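User: Predict structure, ligand pyridoxal-5'-phosphate.
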Amino acid sequence: MHFFEYRNGTLFCEDVDLARLAAETGTPAYVYSASTILSHYRRLDEVLAEVPHMICYAVKANSNIGILSLLAGENAGFDIVSGGELFRVVKAGGDAAKCTFAGVGKTEAEIRDALERGIFAFNVESEAELERINAIAGQLGVKAPIAVRVNPDVDAHTHKYISTGKSENKFGIAFERVFAVYANAAKLPNLKIRGVQMHIGSQITEAGPFAEAVEKMQPLVCKLKTLYGIEYFSIGGGMGIVYDPSLASGTTDWWAKDEKPLTLEGYAEAVVPKLKALGLKILVEPGRFMVGNAGVLLARVQYVKAGDIKKFVIVDAGMNDLIRPALYQSFHEIVPVTQRAGALEKVDVVGPVCESGDFFAEERELPPLEQGDLIALMSTGAYGATMSSNYNSRPLLPELLVKGDKVATIRTRQTPDDLIRNESLPSF
Ligand SMILES: *Cc1c(COP(=O)(O)O)cnc(C)c1O
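Assistant: Predicted complex:
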């Protein structure tokens, strides 16, 4: 669910008129709905009520400290993948002791910093990493809390760039090697074995792969509990959202997809009974689910250009602001902020960046759009702003957080000076 809807022909985010907001702040701009994020967090918390749990929001989906502070206010945990993300969490008022640290390439500096801040656990991706963490913990005179990330080798049925739980992926430790790795970890004096973790991929729109992975892990998790007294099992994130409501066949639940919508309740039914039996603390690491449908990217039409065979709607947002269509061939619904009458037209919606991959939609049926019209790229709250860049020397966009009729600027638009802030002319 989300809090974007038309009122009298204009798109609103909660109680804020997006046409007015865009006129005030300029375009392009990201706008987020705080109530949507909070409702996602609370709903997930509710469906997991039957197991002791901690929701660790995957910071990489949207790492703005304004968003992190909302979740810190709910007592959330955080799943981080870099020292920079840990810094953000702490700045936002989050608790380092509720942070899990994921990723295959943790550096010495990152590990040291995380140990000094007292994180909840490292989710370890290789044996070399275990040894590195052990060594640094030894230098600091602390015991490093760890879990091993297991690759359960299940097919998440998602785009190959965001599938992580198959044996051919770089993530985690293969099922067959897990016990040997835990046995090694147990011998390292500065480690405290605290849990076990998995994460099978992202934008998973069926309950099946989650259920399959939990089931596959069950015997292993029980054995690790007996052998090493682990306290937690993290089942990762990856819950998918609806990007194309036309596929959601009549349901208004934005979690839904295809004929058989995957609901949050469906997800919980698939995993909670199996998890309950384990008697462990369960961690979940949702990123996209928490923020994806809570954000839109506002852009203004600059030109409408009729090519020989195609009509292009050129907008002021580009692939540097939102790379998902170019990177994953992903779909974002596009709607006019002010509703328009008239026959639908097939157009390509493209940005100004000098790359043919700079498009948001190809051959999309949209209401007639003219120069100056405002559009919203829906469901861009996750992996939107965080993946943006300054390519083509385009300033990073403002981010606005709406709650009710209030708007907070949680990031200002970069200025030309910002673009070159860390650069200098050579002195020779
Ligand atoms: C990216 C990531 C997540 C979040 O994935 P979503 O699909 O956004 O829920 C969770 N855990 C780990 C280890 C990740 O790398």
